Request: fold
Amino acid sequence: MHACALARLSGSDAVASSSSSTAATAASWKRLTRQHRRASVPRANPSRHVARSSSAEPEKLAVFVSGGGSNMRAIHDACEDGRVRGKIAVVVTNASDCGGANWARERGIPVLIYPPKKSDVGGLTAIELTDALTATHGAKFVLLAGYLRLIPPELCRAYENRMLNIHPALLPAFGGKGMHGENVHKAVVDSGARFTGPTIHFVNEEFDKGKIVAQAVVPVLADDDYSAVAARVLKQEHALFPKVVAALCDDRVKFRPDGVPYLVDSDGKTLE
Reply:
């Protein structure tokens, strides 16, 4: 769940009891996934040249967290091993003692508090936060990696098409108010949906209405409870988010004429 309003934590008839039904469902899932990718991903124009940034300097990333920050750590690992041409320059949290904030402090990464609790010292206003990210820390991109508070409009305007959120279901389904964390996965299981997965989208001022950049699909099995679905989705979140951040840092997020974004590789070929 998210929009410029709210970033959320990441993140059924399935199969019959017989092994033959399980195999059939797995085959069906693979077939539908291929069809989904072919149908939903636009083809790149081969004649269109897509250049990488000429700068070798890593892009500065601001990451927002409210909990343990597992997606932030996945992005950090990708920066460290070269998959992402970026570095986490600053972390923003509403929970000054959360695992993600402590992880950042241990590595010397500045931590900003927004919005502050009454007991917090040094918390920022919305305007101060925007100024701190743009001017003080020079963050080029903002990544919402499990953040459970309002995102101020000032920040949305400053980072239009440069702020991403990760949602633990396949938007536009299972989005909107209240759809975050366990609530999302319980709703997926209760609905009987056969598939789910993470969505990464740009952030605007509406709940979960930003343009979808990328998705990954995982099956929902007959004996799944919400925790099993959550674990399966989280694994895909940790793979998908760094992939999209890498494209963002390399200017490989392109837009169709109607404004829908998609990813390309270094040769300009559409990524599926």
Observations:
- The two ends are 23 Å apart (CA to CA).
- Confidence is low (pLDDT under 50) at residues 5-26, 35-54.
- Residues 91 and 111 are 5 Å apart (CA to CA).
- The helical segments are 19-40, 70-80, 99-106, 126-136, 153-158, 182-191, 226-249.
